[in-house]
Amino acid sequence: MKQFRSLMDIIEERKSIRSFKPQEVEEEKLNYILNAFRKAPSAKNLQPWKLVVVKDKKIIKDLAIACNDQTFLEEAPIIITACAKEDEAYGVMGGYMNSYSIDIGIALEHLILAAAEQGLGTCWIGAFKEKLVKDILSIPEDVRVVALTPVGYPAAEGDERGRKPLSKIVCYNKYI
Length: 176
Fold this sequence. Notes:
Layout: H1 7-13, H2 27-38, E1 49-54, H3 57-66, E2 78-85, H4 100-117, E3 121-122, H5 130-137, E4 143-152, H6 166-169
Antiparallel strand pairs: 1-2, 2-4, 3-4
């Protein structure tokens, strides 16, 4: 019988992975995590996103360079690039901002947690040169690259990263 882990267990166990086994990711697991992304909420349910799933080793090598020479990305069997269609996103969140970065952030976190549940490692990549990524992946000018993540089986455990206590990040009734 399959042992189920709680969502909090998955959140607590998940770490950024920067070393991957050469093992391919099964299509069933890939589709599972892509569906987790697809099911995420977005402002006004506009779903202003598109994912580029890369398995080609030459393209992955080029992406590693575009991601400020993060060579560990070359070990991953898959790199997923999360793109936003800025003009399709809700344009006035809070009365002053476009929702696309938050929409993609929520959806990519769904994907990352689903990957952890499936025994796969990921690492949120925000250090990249957007123009280079766009050129490599033929992403149109009017589409924004928000983040990338490698996906694969971890070859090593990720580093433990500390978290601030709740008392430092939560206040009640007023911002203090």
